From TrEMBL, chains A, B, C, D:
One of its GO terms (molecular function) is lyase activity. Keywords: Lyase, Purine biosynthesis. This is Adenylosuccinate lyase. Residues 364-450 form the Adenylosuccinate lyase C-terminal domain. It comes from Haloferula helveola. The lineage of its organism: Bacteria, Pseudomonadati, Verrucomicrobiota, Verrucomicrobiia, Verrucomicrobiales. Pathway: Purine metabolism; AMP biosynthesis via de novo pathway; AMP from IMP: step 2/2; Purine metabolism; IMP biosynthesis via de novo pathway; 5-amino-1-(5-phospho-D-ribosyl)imidazole-4-carboxamide from 5-amino-1-(5-phospho-D-ribosyl)imidazole-4-carboxylate: step 2/2. Belongs to the lyase 1 family. Adenylosuccinate lyase subfamily.
Length: 472, 472, 472, 472
């Protein structure tokens, strides 16, 4: 059999369980039992021992037997009904229900539970990111815009930046979870006609039945006006939330790949691991690259979801069916694999302060030219004169560095030797040295991020303590 | 000049104003003034008369003059600074700011105000949809699944179904508006270094400055940890919310196009309009088709947004610039055009009860076969016998209808003539006739939708009362 | 294990074989053998019996054993080398090769063979479509634009229209196959350094080696300048060609779904199959809906492919790896499933001439109004007078039909009774009746399509004769 | 008026002309004139002086006048007919034509001419890329995989790699141009009914008419079986070809952005330009970033195109209309802007050999470890012993470099001092030095690329000589 590569290679057992054939069948059976219990409480003639019999066998899943039944009935839901009835020795499941009353609700339950798991993993990720941001809150690095040196920041601040992006997407995901509406028992075209028939037109009972079933599912809301299916824009919203949530990790992974190229940081190695045997110096950012790959995959699933949203004809059909079979589990496997990989990166990543310092030293004189100009002006020289002198020397220095005429940045010496600049080499060096430890509000900003994450981690302590499995 | 086709042909003046060159320049100037006022309050030496001078000329926008300055400076923000200074006769704007301190915040303001306008238009749409759903709450139609007749529902329920999809997306959009975070004054790489220099390192003053500026912008939140730019996943989230919101209208437009094919409903005509002169009978669903077109456009903008999210290198760069210049205004123009069109459809659409009744009559005997079987069993025949007889006659009837052997659905007569079915033709006809007015919980469901929309319309009365402009 | 749902439920064995773990390992081994043979011919010391030993065991694939080796080596290619060496009792494979010299070429072989299979299936599809177009070449139907009646055409012409769309995409796919370039043996960064070392810098031998290996692969071209990887825009081009090819079938499937709603045609049933047991009249277009679903899936894969194209950093990395593991097999499984489904539709579909005739009769008087006007003018009335009269009656008729005031289209009677129109009811009825069999050039156009397909089928007779497997 | 930002800021005049309102109107009038000439030749009564009158006024485009007419007629094509007739003083245009007979063909002409311009710009780009590849064919750089040092290559080879990717996409685009089929004169639903009426059913004349009109358009092929519209998968194919073509430039732009971060190369400056005034050292890769931005935009247009392909209902409608109004011109403006930008990069880019050498020196000892091991084995030491010693020293060296314990790569000294390695420091240094100039087949591969481009440039000399306009 050809396996689902996302499930088998990357996703965690929790997600695999939800989306496996066996896991789904158990969810369906639990759903049927919840319906039967509610129907019985509301007056339908379903014996208690029948329900007990269904409950006692609900975990006996024999997919081969079900498949054999399907070959006879040519109808998948009917085959699963017969199998469950056969196991229990009763015929009480699926009363007044159409196939979609079962499948829509159970698929939404799969989505809802998956969303919660991913929400929890984003908490685990934020907790780790917060620790890393604190660890390096004061490690000054050369911030880059357009991928070239710009101003000092700290490595912790850089991480907090990607972390805060995730925090924002996390809140949006939580909004989705808090509002997530389930279809409920609505019948073939959404009018509840069959449940109404079953309860002789008693609308209050039908409403109470649905209320109880939704309570079983544990979802916070229920649709009132639907057709055969719930609106597929809800699936779109879910996949969009996952894509959104993957963005912070993806940007951070790209930035780590860039830093690895400069040897200022790396995603690290597992304990005992070294580079490739042929090239032991090589620390390839394979996991970061994989994170970026997962994001591309999610964007593909988003395109699938957007192909379904807004394309409902009348009360619905199954043109979405094959798409959702692929897109829903695979999007969750992909984001799950992304988090498993990203958590491992966060556990193993490393910074190289010596190389960072070398880079700072190389660029700092350039980064401090605006401060040097201000001090020169204070010391009496005209603004235009100072600007002209500094620009001349800065351009000459960068050109000489690129041409190999000088090997270290000697802008300070050049400026000290220029009469137009009324500052000594000690004063100039002092300005540059002060720059090395001045990253503005970076440390305080990191602290703000850490506090926000702490609040979240306190609200979800188990999620925050999650340990990823080992990755390929 | 080649115009922006979405702006010129489809978008409303409110959106055009926000995204026009002139509108943007005024927003920038108001932003600079807000910064100066706060800086002055916090101790910077900015004379009150200077601020007054800026305020008095802020609406004098001369794009040609600015463009001339840009040709000299080769820097767009610098040109706009010089123009504003020139008009005011002062040089106090942009203190301690980098270009992105201006442009990011102003672009977010454009997005935020556009989101609010679209939020309001969705309220206007829901209000109309609710009225239409009430109007046709009891008009029984033949619900279709797989585009073929399935069970009765009502036209009002069908509309409420698409309306409730929109209502759900509306709530998600409102969540986005309620949380929308602005970048604030963060400097070249996000560390606020330059504002800190300006205030001699006084972090409290810098924080207070930002707080006041954000208050001016009227946005509910502010980022703490950003780089040169705010995370582009926020743009993604905004465009995804628009795409989501367009889904209900898009599905309803497709369904109206289908109904027009059956002549059960149409998007209607403007007063005085008829079909094409060559074919006056033709009522083309041009506006519904356009709604679907706008949705496709939005999905394209979503693909652009998804190409930016998760692609930040270090503290940022301008690889997103050209994309955002296209995607942000155009996505808002597209959704705005969609709502202008859809509002017009809602105002002009029509249903054709006589044709609907003809369709119901044609299909109803088929739709009531399950009820007929139940009654036959009550009357004493075995379940299997009844099922077999009904199936035989139903298949024969549908085949004869398709083959043209009969011209009306005579299933009732066939069943009445079969000894296996112990029901008279009066009884059978009665069952079918009862079906015509039984759409289950449809009317009550519509009422639920109406009440939800009423609450929303009460909260946003001006939005609910919006009248669309005339469309092409 | 969680299966790949596209492979297991929808794809044919031919595609499954290419993309299975076992199938891939055999392809790799055959590739290694081809390299060894060429290396030996060019002077490397590889004994003939070693090659014979490898050949004799190449089909013994034990994935469990390979996985066990991978757990030790932590390197997938190394594990597969050791396994093959172990089976053969020699150590000659992979000389002068890097992992990508193996994997890129073998993955391209999988793509290339899959492209050929899909090319062949499109021939099979075109052959069937051509037969159906001929069968119904003269069956006049009411063509629809904007989903409403427009002018007569024939059902065969409608099918030929979708067929010609496919034919155009087929030619583009063939262009891709004809040009498809393989990466070849290029070494770690594309400079062939390691093969050059192996042959002591003999560039001619290295070139000859690559030529022979490419000949083994059977691909028409080879890249010269590549890095570690071949350009991912080639994958994009392949997936785009598949998406393109799916468009004709997808449009036809949508149109069949529309026709099923009018009961003028249907995708049919398998022999012995009827509608759902609860609603035997219902002929759901499940297979057509599935075809549309596959197209949505392909567009998602296209989004994945477009996320890789143009994103190569330097000589390449593995950020594409997880994406290609999902996208490449799944895109081929999806298009394969689409064709298996669509071929079945073509075999089982049906048209309902009696219903079609009813529809023609209903609309034809409207469709012939321009002809009626021309004849009225010839008979002496002024053009404007005739136009005014016809428009009045046409609008009145369509309104009365929709309002249920008349049950059949009596435009002809109305016009006959109007003094302004100097034509008798016989003349008017004659014009309308002539319209029923006048579909312009439709029949000749169909013939043109049939001839083009015939040429293709003659060039690929085996492909044209392909029979699809049975579908779910 | 809000301008089209892609047209105004980035696209070249040639593209603007094709897609402007005025340009389109002239194309339409030329089309009508071509139809009239052919109709006259085939016997219709159209006076020669009428055609002459139309020809003499075809360039007098008054969009305001046309818009005024449209307000009266409420039909855009009718307004343009009346305007042209009014100018010429005749009424002979548009005989037997429907609106789509005009608009589809003219829009295809816009697409086709745009495709040719882009094809030509890709030739211009390849010619420049070829010169740059030759210029740096022997400049050895450190190739990177996973963004870290891997093996030597040359800068010319790296450029040729991206060039060959473009060459492959160029050939695919040429295939599209060579096959591009136009819709032709097919009437309202594709059956040519109206032209057949016009020529009294003479199919040969109608065929000849179409043949002449297509010859006027200059397109290589014509559809036979279409509906109201030509298949939108052809638009998809066109936009996909543009996206494909942008991939090589996009990957090269990303790689230049990476190299700028290492100061080994840059996109350069316009003559006289320096870095930002605040930071004169900063050479921002703004143009490369913009190239990547254009690619993202194209992927968005591709998503729009894919939303239209496979979504034709019956003989077609206008759900594609608003999408095509945006997507078609904008995709061409985007690719045109991309090429204008990329050509400028190619003209201004620079490499920094001194920095490149520094990088080579830093990494080369690592890159040559496999050669060192081979030589050590030749000198008598066991393979395992040599491997162990080299690995120990390589890992220690990289760690010491990262930790700042050493400032230059002293692996050679370390190995020379290890008794296990029987090579002198002179021998070891010699191996490393030889590596510096050994980039395998790189130079020969570049030559292969250059020859292919030369052939192309000879075939399209004017295209190859194209000079880009100045960019913002």
């Amino acid at each position: 059999m050809i396996p689902n590569v996302l499930a088998e290679r990357y996703a965690s057992p929790a997600l695999q369980d939800i989306w496996s054939a066996e896991g789904r069948i158990v969810l369906e059976r639990e759903f049927w039992i919840a319906v039967m219990k509610a129907q019985r409480d509301l007056g339908l003639d379903i014996p208690a021992e029948a329900i007990a019999a269904y409950e006692s066998c609900k975990d006996q899943v024999d997919t081969a037997s079900i498949m054999e039944r399907e070959r006879v009935t040519r109808h998948d839901v009917k085959a699963r009904i017969e199998e469950f009835n056969g196991l229990a020795g009763h015929e009480h499941v699926h009363k007044g229900m159409t196939s979609r009353d079962l499948t829509e609700n159970v698929e939404q339950l799969q989505v809802f539970r998956s969303l919660q798991i991913i929400r929890d993993k984003s908490v685990a990720t934020l907790a780790r990111l917060s620790r890393r941001a604190q660890q390096w809150a004061d490690l000054v690095i050369t911030a880059r815009t357009h991928n070239v040196a710009a101003q000092p920041t700290t490595f912790g601040k850089r991480l907090a930046m990607f972390g805060e992006e995730m925090l924002s997407a996390h809140a949006a995901l939580q909004d989705l979870v808090d509002r997530y509406p389930v279809r409920g028992l609505k019948g073939a075209v959404g009018t509840q006609m069959d449940q109404l028939s079953l309860f002789d037109g008693d609308a209050a009972k039908v409403a109470e039945l649905e209320k109880r079933v939704v309570a079983h599912l544990g979802m916070p809301a229920v649709w009132t006006n639907v057709g055969q299916v719930y609106p597929r824009s809800l699936d779109f919203r879910s996949v969009a939330a996952l894509t959104d949530l993957a963005s912070g990790p993806s940007s951070m992974a790209k930035t780590l790949r860039l830093m690895a190229g400069h040897e200022t940081a790396s995603e690290g190695f597992a304990p005992g691991q070294t580079g490739s045997s042929a090239m032991p110096h090589k620390m390839n950012s394979r996991s970061c690259e994989r994170v970026n790959g997962f994001h591309v995959i999610l964007k593909g699933h988003l395109a699938m979801a957007s192909g379904l949203a807004g394309d409902q004809w009348n009360e619905g059909d199954v043109s979405c069916s094959v798409v959702r079979r692929v897109m829903l589990p695979d999007a969750f496997f992909a984001i799950d694999g992304l988090f498993e990989t990203f958590l491992t990166i966060l556990d193993q990543m490393d910074a190289y302060p010596a190389v960072i310092r070398r880079e700072n030293t190389h660029y700092l004189p350039f980064l401090m030219t605006t401060t040097i100009m201000m001090e020169a002006v204070k010391a009496g020289v005209g603004r235009e004169t100072a600007h002209k002198a500094i620009k001349e020397h800065a351009v000459a220095t960068v050109n000489d560095l690129r041409a190999g005429k000088v090997s270290t940045n000697n802008l300070v010496e050049r400026l000290a030797g220029d009469e137009r600049i009324p500052l000594t080499i000690e004063e100039l060096s002092g300005i540059v040295a002060a720059g090395e430890s001045n990253a503005g509000a970076a440390a305080a900003q990191v602290q703000g991020f850490v506090e926000n994450v702490n609040r979240l981690a306190e609200a979800y302590p188990a999620a925050a303590a999650y340990q990823p499995g080992s990755i390929l």
